[in-house]
Design a protein that fits this description.
The chain is of the alpha/beta class. The chain is built from 23 helices and 24 strands. The strands form 6 sheets. It has a 7-stranded mixed sheet with strand order 3-2-4-5-7-6-12, with helices on both faces. A 6-stranded parallel sheet has the order 16-15-17-18-20-19, sandwiched between helices. A 5-stranded mixed sheet has the order 9-11-10-13-14, sandwiched between helices. Strand 6, helix 7 and strand 7 form a beta-alpha-beta unit. The two termini are 33 Å apart.
């Protein structure tokens, strides 16, 4: 795995040794399940926590004879996978929750079109938004699209569900959706391998006579609901749904996904095995009504444990309403009753707290005095950490140049952006410049709108920022929109030569595909020029030159201007070339707090390789972290930071 520039020819993921046990991440287990199902085409746009699925498959693409693609965005990824399915091959398409928003436009047509070869859509949600702009729950899309939804609780289940989903997909002639969350995607567990599906000689052929789009939509919609009725019967006996606990528990926990293990752990920690039962549902849509009704009859108190939204909770309540005479009155506890929080990741502590409130049982994991002492000590000895750019990151220099240019312009200008490494520009590492952060490419779309507000009295300059991968994914249409509608737009493209935030996957501008093959790169400057933009290319480490180009763009109040700040990510450059500069602080010139700059270097610029030495009361270079970019030497007003070409 990695950035697509080198791919391993062998991997344990493709071992043809049924019965062998491996330690795998959830995402690797999904990849293995796809291989056991005989997948042929694998597509995605990288997005944590889903990225490792296609990374894993890309690593074995050549040895397994499969095609793997990092697509330009999630909608195109699903379309490429669907074309393989239409031709009779099995295909998998992976994305994160935000990506499903992008792909949904096609998904909500594809469900009516139907498929031929099995097609699995894997969507990995990010509870607590560890690497996302939201913690959106993707499960309602399955209900909206009338498509089956599976959610694994263990790593073995992740593999088994994936393999079975391809068969189910072909049986109903439609897409199957598998949902993961951060903890099932990135944690590891034991997985027992099954047999790899032998290569079949099924003809790869698109049947022109099938006439996919000629039947009335209402008939296709009707077929979807017939599928759901059939699926309810199939899922009633699914091994992915199971109950564990006493015959008549005081509380029945209904859970799914990661919530199952948290629930089991909470019950065990509290010693409530004889009082609490746990029903795990792995087939979340359509719900197995018969299984739900049978288990609801066991207890009058029901607790729901799930991530993120009350999807399972709401749908079980619908079933309870339909069968109210059969199951009798129930007390439901979960997110709506505020026994379980509406936000953040689930964990065993949250389940313990909910059970304690319901059963009026107190549980203390640690002595309260120890808890208080530990918190006191932690506050004293654990330093606060602020998210920041890596040492030598070109984005820090880019934001510095933009900051200075906007200050010199002095018209209260601001910066719009979206998701990526540069989203950190909302905080101190980007000098708090980034004022909006939405979907990919939204910064460019917003700037396009701001650029049309001059007739209404709006006179603040606006600079949109996006990464190179984001440019291809979603910013291009917004740039065209700005040009076509004659918007006054400045777009800064941070071209660091990779999809850096998710692990350096290649994109169309890199010249390498997912399988490590050299391809002709798409020239970002040429594309922007073709769209009618005035284009400048600059090195962000050239601070004076970059600031001058930004100022010139700010002074030009007509049309679309693009500044491409081109400098390879420092993480990619590590080990590939020598450090360009030897950087050190001249202690004779550095006068610390007496400089008058307010410690501009360590308090404002804040590169991790540049630190404050409280003993000497001077700035200092951390030689372990410093990558020798030399930018700090340019920003020091006292010229106390010196850079020399490294030998």
């Amino acid at each position: 795995m990695g950035n697509g520039r080198e791919k391993a020819s062998t991997s344990v993921i493709c071992l043809d040794e049924p019965g062998k046990e491996l330690l795998l991440m959830g995402n690797e287990a999904i990849a293995r399940g796809a291989l056991e199902a005989g997948v042929k085409v694998c597509t995605a746009y990288p997005g944590t926590p889903s990225t490792d699925i296609i990374e894993t498959l890309a690593g074995v693409a050549k040895s397994m004879g499969i095609y793997v693609e990092w697509s330009i965005n999630e909608k195109v990824a699903l379309e490429v996978a669907a074309s393989a399915s239409f031709s009779g091959m099995r295909a998998i398409c992976a994305m994160k929750q935000n990506g499903l928003n992008v792909a949904s436009d096609f998904l909500l047509s594809l469900n009516l079109i139907g498929i031929e070869g099995g097609l699995l859509l894997v969507c990995c949600d990010d509870p607590s938004a560890h690497s996302s702009t939201n913690e959106q729950d993707s499960r309602p899309f399955a209900k909206m699209a009338d498509l089956p939804l599976l959610e694994p609780s263990t790593f073995q289940e992740a593999k088994e569900m994936t393999r079975w989903a391809f068969t189910l997909s072909e049986e109903i002639k439609n897409v199957c959706i598998l949902r993961g969350v951060t903890r099932t995607s990135h944690a590891r567990g034991n997985v027992t391998l099954g047999a790899l599906l032998p290569s079949n000689d099924r003809k790869v052929y698109f049947d022109k006579e099938r006439q996919r789009n000629t039947h009335p939509v209402h008939q296709k919609h009707n077929q979807l609901h017939k599928n759901l009725l059939y699926l309810e019967e199939v899922l009633a006996t699914s091994p992915f749904n199971q109950y564990q606990g006493p015959r008549q528990p005081k509380v029945l926990i209904i859970t799914c996904g990661s919530g199952w293990l948290y629930s089991l752990e909470a019950v065990e920690m509290m010693g409530l095995e004889d009082f609490v039962g746990v029903l795990k549902i792995g087939t979340l849509w359509p719900l197995p009504t018969k299984t739900i009704v049978e288990n609801l009859q066991k207890s009058d108190q029901i607790l729901f444990v799930e991530e993120v939204d009350p999807f399972l909770e709401g749908n079980v309540k619908e079933i309870a309403a339909d069968f109210s005479r059969q199951i009798g009155p129930k007390a439901f506890f979960g997110k709506r009753s505020q026994h379980v929080p509406f936000y953040g990741e689930m964990n065993s502590d949250r389940v313990i707290e909910a059970l304690g409130r319901i059963l009026e049982v107190r549980y203390q994991a640690r002595d309260p005095q120890y808890e208080a002492k530990a918190a006191e000590v932690a506050e004293k000895i654990i330093p606060g950490r602020v998210l920041g750019f890596c040492p030598g990151c070109p984005h820090r220099a880019s934001f510095w140049a933009v900051k200075n240019a906007l200050q010199l312009d002095n018209r209260e200008g601001f910066v719009t952006g979206d998701i990526g490494c540069y989203a950190l520009g909302r905080g101190p590492t980007g000098f708090f410049l980034l004022k909006t952060s939405g979907a990919m490419g939204s910064g460019t779309g917003l700037a396009s709108g701001f650029g049309k507000l001059a007739p209404f009295g709006f006179d603040q300059p606006v600079i949109a920022m996006c990464g190179d991968s984001t440019f291809f994914h979603a910013a291009m249409p917004a740039l065209v929109n700005a040009y076509y509608n004659k918007s006054n737009l400045i777009l800064v493209i941070l071209d660091n030569r990779a999809t850096a935030m998710t692990g350096f996957q290649p994109h169309p501008g890199v010249g390498m595909n997912a399988m490590g093959e050299e391809v002709t790169p798409v020239d970002i400057a040429g594309v922007c020029g073709a769209f009618g933009a005035k284009v400048e290319v600059t090195d962000p480490f050239d601070l004076p030159g970059t600031e001058q180009k930004i100022l010139q763009a700010l002074e030009d109040s007509t049309g679309v201007k693009v500044i491409i700040m081109r400098r390879e990510c420092a993480m990619l450059k590590m080990g590939e070339e020598k450090i360009p500069y030897k950087v050190q602080v001249d202690t004779r010139k550095c006068v610390g707090e007496d400089c008058g700059c307010g410690r501009l270097c360590t308090r404002v610029f804040r590169c991790p390789g540049l630190i404050w030495d409280p003993g000497m009361a001077k700035a200092k270079i951390d030689e372990v972290l410093c990558v020798g970019c030399g930018v700090c030497a340019d920003i020091c007003p006292g010229k106390a930071i010196v850079k020399e070409e490294a030998k």
